[in-house]
Amino acid sequence: MFRKLVSKEFLIEWRQKYAINGILLYLATTIFITYLSLGVQRGLIHPLTWNSIFWIIFSFIAINAIAKSFSGDEKRQQLYMYSLVDPQMLFAAKSAYNILLLTVFGLISFVFYSFVMGNPVANTPLFLINLVLTSIGFAAILTMVSGIASNAENTATLMAVLSLPIMVPLLLLSIKISKAAIDNFEILLVWKPLLSIFALDIIIVVVGLVLFPYLWRS
Amino acid sequence: MKKNWWKYLTIVLLIYTVVAGFLIEAPRLNILNESIRNLFFHVPMWFGMVIILTGSVIQSVRYLSSNDLNKDIGADVLAKVGIWYGVLGLVTGAVWATYTWGRMAGWLADPKITAVFVTLLIYFAYLLLRSSLNDEQKRARVSAVYNIFAYPLMISLLFILPRLAENSLHPGNAGNPGFNAYDLDSRLRMVFYPAVIGWTLLGYWIATLHFRIRKIEHKLEEE
């Protein structure tokens, strides 16, 4: 059942390619505008600035990519799903799909960003582990918040306002770790924040699983 | 009379806090000096904020398990009082910081202040979510879900991240003189713990009054 739901998400995404293409274009435009407005030549930007701008761009990409997670479904379709599957299963499937989506977007934006702005990262494996762990947390938070925001009228504003403050703990931790990755730290030296991110991911997913059935009741 | 014993307790505790807080002998700590008396006014605001916001989450949980709208109003009211305590904590902290840190610029950079700011943002978002939903039951349910969902993240922000950060100007952090478990003077404790209980009870008292006003408004609307 779980697999079927995830593959259903993929199928819908594949049918309406404009959504994914839209996010890709959004990603490219944002990164290019950052490049233009900072007026940087390759490699001249300070690594700390490079780092924070990357994470800010990534969080906004994440919000935009997942915002339509529930508002995309029609009301009738939602009712049908409600009668068919367990809400927890649905949440698990949606977040699993969003985690995959966000990880891919994260990798693409990392590649494109380092292509445009230069790449100061010395310890790439650490940076990528961090990117994946953060994507898991972001995706789970945003799936839940998108479910919450789809109940109200002004979805777009609510999506950003509701999700950004609760993404801050993850964001701060991941900026800390990727700073370590830029300074070429060993993975073992940053096990504390890595473990904290992992623990936060688990907490978010579990709390989401517990709460989602209440959200879905309408 | 019997039901209101905690209100009298609040008054007694707060009078004790103010009188004793200004009159007891303060330990001579470097830089802090007399300003350590802010311990009885600034720090209890944070304790009160966290306890009251926890109360708000408990009300939300109780709403989800009972569908009783009173619980939802309780969660809303407690969240508002919690926000007020957060703002008051920032103000009392800012006054204190002017005289001990000697500067206001860059005070946002302190991890504890950042955490509080983000906490306030979360609860402002909670209030915005409430105001953008019109249906009563739906508003109660959806905002309860958000309240509970945001809570563990807020706690991680308030308690874990400041400890992971290397530098902070707050007493007790990064080698500053302060009131950690081992150097909190026993005389300070005599006032500090009653102050925490007193200020928290005051917050709860304000919340109950607010709750009753909301109930009356609700009744008037129905008539």
Structure description:
The complex is a heterodimer of chains A (218) and B (223). Chain A is mainly alpha-helical and 218 residues long. Chain A has one domain (2-215). Chain A is built from nine helices and no strands. In chain A, helix 1 crosses helix 6, helix 2 (17-38) packs antiparallel against helix 3 and helix 7 (124-149) packs parallel to helix 9. The two termini of chain A are 23 Å apart. Chain B is globular and about 60 Å long. The model of chain B has no long low-confidence stretch (mean pLDDT 81). Helix content of chain B is 73%, strand content 0%. Chain B has one domain (29-222). Chain B has helices at 5-23, 43-66, 69-100, 111-131, 136-164, 186-222. Chain A binds chain B through residues 141, 144-145, 148, 151-154, 158, 161-162, 164-166, 168-169, 172-173, 176, 192-193, 196, 200, 203-204, 207-208, 211, 214-215, 217-218, and chain B through 64, 118-119, 121-122, 125, 128-129, 132-133, 138, 141-142, 144-146, 148-150, 152-154, 156-157, 160-161, 164.
Structural topology:
The complex is a heterodimer of chains A (218) and B (223).
Chain A: H1 2-15, H2 17-38, H3 47-66, H4 68-71, H5 75-84, H6 87-117, H7 124-149, H8 155-182, H9 191-215
Helix pairs in contact in A: 1-6, 2-3, 2-6, 3-6, 3-7, 3-8, 6-7, 6-9, 7-8, 7-9, 8-9
Chain B: H1 5-23, H2 43-66, H3 69-100, H4 111-131, H5 136-164, H6 186-222
Helix pairs in contact in B: 1-6, 2-3, 2-5, 2-6, 3-4, 3-5, 3-6, 4-5
